[in-house]
Fold:
Amino acid sequence: MAYVRTIVREGHPVLRRVAKKVDPKEIPDPLFQQLIDDMFETMYAAPGVGLAAPQINVSKRLFVIDTGEDEEHPEGTKHVVINPKIESAKEETELNEGCLSVPGLIGDIARYERVIVTGLDRTGKKLRLDGGDLFAQALQHEIDHLNGVLYIDKAKNIRKPKPKEEQEEEEM
Ligand code: ZN
Structure:
């Protein structure tokens, strides 16, 4: 069973902490596996396309992501990434962004169009993700969460979305 956990909002100190690296020995622990299941459940219920552990008040370096299928990833983009690291990033662009921990707002933010991220998967195996567009954006957004950074720290023109923007907006 997986459970929807409470998403904490801006103002909660956990969102400003640099999250702790996960000891790989902890990964097989049933409680850690439950945490991953609950993070997916919470992300899909929100709904969102990414969720970092600090957003459910767990100050550890992992996040879940699922931005759906895209041309590069016909098999989908559902992953958990533990102890992530950005290996490379290129082509800066400006995008709309929203966050489940800052509900009801969006802003314009500079993000890289393409990133390569490495880390560990839920079995402790090495993982390498390579992607662009929304997938790359969400990867950067979630890694920021692990460093105590919110998009509103960097974004311009933070605003309530217009109805059309609201439909298009993905939160993470
Ligand atoms: Zn967020």
Residues 30-45 form the longest helix (16 residues).
